[in-house]
Design brief:
Bound molecules: zinc ion
Number of domains: 2
Structural class: alpha+beta
Radius of gyration: 22 Å
Largest sheet: 7 strands, mixed
Number of strands: 9
Distance between the termini: 53 Å
Order of helices and strands: EEEEEEEHEEHH
Length: 173
């Protein structure tokens, strides 16, 4: 979905949308949007700056960084963005704003809402996805998923992964 900046009325407008997951494609190698993306946005324009504020909701499929299992992760996030016209922005401005996640640019009167929402969803995805805080991961020796059963591998004393596991088991019992 795209909006034309020149067509944003003085009083702004609301977007209530449910976008098909397929519209978003694959977010990256390991991240797939799983359910329709619901967004409720308020769009306003002040001068050439477009202000978009609202909420976005969906479910993405992530791959656990410990056990490699795929699992669903709910994304519910507020967004509050300023979009400036790319044309006319000085290099200095662009550089300053490159580090600011709440500032974006639009080109040629068009704001691609789908793309914007895709970026917002990606921002919510954890760097190290975990199917559960307690995920035991795979045995580094035989590859057994230790959430399912333990294997007989005897690691050398002091292996950091197994120290963590020992602590974890201690906490449990
Ligand atoms: Zn896991
Ligand atoms: Zn093993």
């Amino acid at each position: 979905m795209e909006i034309k900046v020149s067509e944003i009325p003085a009083e702004g407008f609301k977007i209530e949308m449910v976008a098909d997951a397929a519209d978003f494609g694959k977010l990256d190698e390991e991240t797939v949007i799983h359910r329709p993306v619901t967004a409720s946005l308020r769009v306003e324009k002040v001068g050439a700056t477009v202000h978009i504020k609202g909420e976005i909701d969906t479910v993405v499929e992530l791959t656990c960084s410990r056990c490699a299992k795929k699992y669903d992760y709910s994304v519910a996030s507020g967004l509050d963005l300023d979009l400036h016209p790319l044309k006319g922005a000085s290099e200095e401005e662009k550089e300053l704003q490159a580090g600011d996640l709440d500032v974006e640019f639009y080109e040629r009167d068009i704001i691609d809402i789908t793309n914007l929402l895709r970026e917002q969803v990606l921002l919510q995805v954890p760097m190290k996805p975990l199917c559960s805080e307690d995920c035991l991961g795979l045995c580094p020796y035989c590859g057994q998923d230790m959430n399912e059963r333990t294997c007989g591998c005897k690691p050398p004393e002091g292996h950091p992964g197994f120290e963590a596991l020992k602590d974890f088991l201690k906490d449990k019992g």
